[in-house]
Each structure stands twice: as structure tokens, then as C-alpha cells.
Amino acid sequence: MHTMSPVEFVIPAPPPVNLPVQGSAQRFPVRRVFCVGRNYEEHAKEMGFTGREPPFFFMKPADALVSIDPQQPGRIAYPSLTQNLHHEIELVVAVGLGGRDIPADQATQHIYGYAVGLDMTRRDLQNEMKKQGRPWEIGKAFEQSAPIGPVVPAAQVAGLGDAAIWLKVNGELRQSSHIHQLIWNLGEIIEHLSAAWELAPGDLIFTGTPAGVAAVRPGDVIHAGVDGLPDLNLQVV
Ligand code: MN
């Protein structure tokens, strides 16, 4: 008979990343965090692009997530090296069933649920990397760059297609749009993403931000949401 002995590590092992699930005591285990770039027309324009380009993707490490409890305000730390930390409110898709080459019309069965997330961006560093043709990680993939609310199972979410997506800073509305304004809808995102990567249970997909991205400073309070999902409340400290 074969007995597994417990794994021992030579250095402290990182804790597994997971998120609360609304209405459940069980947790959602996070594997990878994919993000879609420029997926709302008005935001693509404000970033200097026009027209429909194929969707493109970048990633954040799973431990860049900061779980925000909808019952109490959360906090993220203002990161190093930037003078221009931008907020990007996004609808997040939580993948429950993996697969490759998933057709858009079958994507729904791969979605476990949804969350509201922020793709925090060191815009000055990202712009410098763009200019130099270098990778974006320093602008996108830093610690605490992805505050996120609980995962809401898809069965508990009705009609996100018409949902508003919005973000306020210190009470002032900065971003306001609708999920139906997505250039590439959720099915199309999953079709393109699963052609490039084999999706796996636990993957998260940040689906892009609408126009109105702008800077926050330490002390600012962010209140943001997608109608039908719990709001995000957090302070930059
Ligand atoms: Mn984004």
C-alpha cells in the first residue's frame, strides 16, 4: 500500500489564493488572473486608439488580488515608483470549467460566477513601457493591484447584459457605462482567450474598463460597482 507523506517545503510556501463566494461558506480557489485590454470603445479612444482591434490579454499574479468584504470598507496601499495610479473598474468572470477553443456560444457553461474588480494601474510606468516596447508588468502586475469583491455564482446573477458599471472617487462619478458597451462580449472574450491558453477552473478574467480612468491619491475613497453584484468600497492608503 502506498501512503502519501505530507509535502515539506525548504522555504515558507505561499498560502493558496482564494475568494469568498456569496451565499456560501466555501471558497473560490484562484488559479490565474487574465485581463483584457481596451474593451470599451470610449476607453480605447481616451487611450489613443480607434476602431475594433482583436482582443489582447495581459496577466496579474493571483496574489495581486485583495479580497474586499462588501460589509466593510477595504484598503489598498499606494504603490511605489508611481505618480499616476489609475483606477479601472471591471466586471470579472470566474471560470468554473476549463477548456480550450471554447466557442463563444458555449462560453456560458464555463462561467462559475462574477465579481467586481479594479485593475489598478501605474499609468506612468505602463506608458513608459509602451513607448519603449517593453512588457507591462511594472505598470499592471504589482502587489495589491487587483482589489476584488466576492464571487457571485452565475445562478444568482440576473441579466448582467444591461447592467451599469460605474466608479466614484470621494463621491464624484468618474466612470459610468454599461456592460453591453463591451467591444468584445464575455463569450467572445472566452473564445479568444481559450484559443491562446487552455482555461482552467479558478482562472479569473478582468474584462476591461470603460472611459474615465484617472488618478487616485492616498486618502481617496473608491466606491464602485456593477449593478447586480456587491459594490466595492475601499480607501487608498
Ligand atoms: Mn484594465
Describe what this molecule looks like in 3D.
This protein is an alpha+beta fold and 237 residues long. The chain has one domain (22-236): Fumarylacetoacetase-like, C-terminal domain (Fumarylacetoacetate hydrolase, domain 2), CATH 3.90.850. The chain has helices at 41-46, 123-132, 137-140, 186-196, and strands at residues 18-20, 27-29, 33-37, 56-60, 65-67, 74-76, 85-86, 89-95, 111-118, 121-122, 146-148, 152-153, 164-169, 172-178, 204-206, 215-216, 221-226, 232-236. The chain has a 6-stranded mixed beta sheet with strand order 4-3-15-8-9-12, with helices on one face. A 5-stranded mixed beta sheet has the order 6-18-17-13-14, with no helix packed on it. A 3-stranded antiparallel beta sheet has the order 10-7-16. A hairpin with a 5-residue loop joins strand 17 (221-226) and strand 18 (232-236). It is globular and about 60 Å long. It starts with 17 loop residues before the first strand and ends with a strand. The model has no long low-confidence stretch (mean pLDDT 95). Residues 35, 88, 90, 119, 206, 208-209 line the site of manganese (II) ion.
In short:
The protein is an alpha+beta fold and 237 residues long. The protein has 4 helices and 18 strands.
Supply database-style keywords.
single chain; 237 residues; alpha+beta; Fumarylacetoacetate hydrolase, domain 2; five-stranded mixed beta sheet; 18 strands; binds manganese (II) ion
Give a topology summary:
Elements: E1 18-20, E2 27-29, E3 33-37, H1 41-46, E4 56-60, E5 65-67, E6 74-76, E7 85-86, E8 89-95, E9 111-118, E10 121-122, H2 123-132, H3 137-140, E11 146-148, E12 152-153, E13 164-169, E14 172-178, H4 186-196, E15 204-206, E16 215-216, E17 221-226, E18 232-236
Parallel strand pairs: 3-15, 5-11, 6-18
Antiparallel strand pairs: 1-2, 3-4, 7-10, 7-16, 8-9, 8-15, 9-12, 13-14, 13-17, 17-18
